[in-house]
Amino acid sequence: MENRINQFVQAEFDKTLANFNAMAADAGLREQIARAVAICVEALRAGRKILFCGNGGSAADAQHWAGELVSRFYYDRPGLPAIALTTDTSILTAIGNDYGYDYTFARQVEALGQAGDVLVAISTSGRSKNVLRALDVAEQKGIKVIGFTGASGGDMAGRCEVCFKVPSTETPRIQEGHEFIGHLLCALIESEIFPR
Ligand SMILES: O=C(CO)[C@@H](O)[C@H](O)[C@H](O)[C@H](O)COP(=O)(O)O
Ligand SMILES: [Zn+2]
Q1: CA of 77 to the centre of ligand 1 (A)
Q2: How does 85-113 read in b/e, with b if 16+ C-beta sit within 10 Å?
Q3: Please, what are the domains in the chain?
Q4: Is the CB of residue 58 below 6 angstroms from any atom belonging to ligand 1?
Q5: Is the pLDDT confidence value at 1 over 80?
Q6: pTM greater than 0.90
Q7: Is the ipTM of this complex over 0.90?
């Protein structure tokens, strides 16, 4: 194999493993996970739902995790109410065209969100304007926000009930951390609400 490729792959493994080791050693992260699960379980038991938003790779996370709650994660059980605000191209293009891209999620939170719901807001920079505007509406409507960001938290820091700040400044590393934590949340929500 070409040496350049070999070195690149090794360096990527090193960064990813360092990122996951830092997360595994962080006791605060485990407490945050427990809090986020409790927030979601309380909402779902009260008949409320979970909304997800994010751009690019984070849009993929939003859809991925909503799918796991509505369908299944580890085992068969009734579906849980979750909606990714990233999937309906008619809604997204109408809002983008009529009001501007910054409003793509806020308008949907306004239309679909109810007090007691949970908004999972995913942004590696913590600075995507459409995600920040969704936070504005969530705050106005009494919707709790669980944030997923990078190390700094960007402009989402201090605006979320729980904010998972993956300890990296590199977008792919942050996204890998998000993916892992999102899977933990799906698994734990499933097993809390439908214990086997
Ligand atoms: O997946 C990736 C990079 O790994 C990209 O698509 C990335 O998600 C996009 O550039 C997003 O627009 C970044 O937005 P954000 O995470 O800063 O909110
Ligand atoms: Zn998954």
Answers
A1: 33
A2: bbeeeebbeebbeeeeebbbbbbbbbeeb
A3: 28-193 (3.40.50.10490)
A4: yes
A5: no
A6: yes
A7: yes
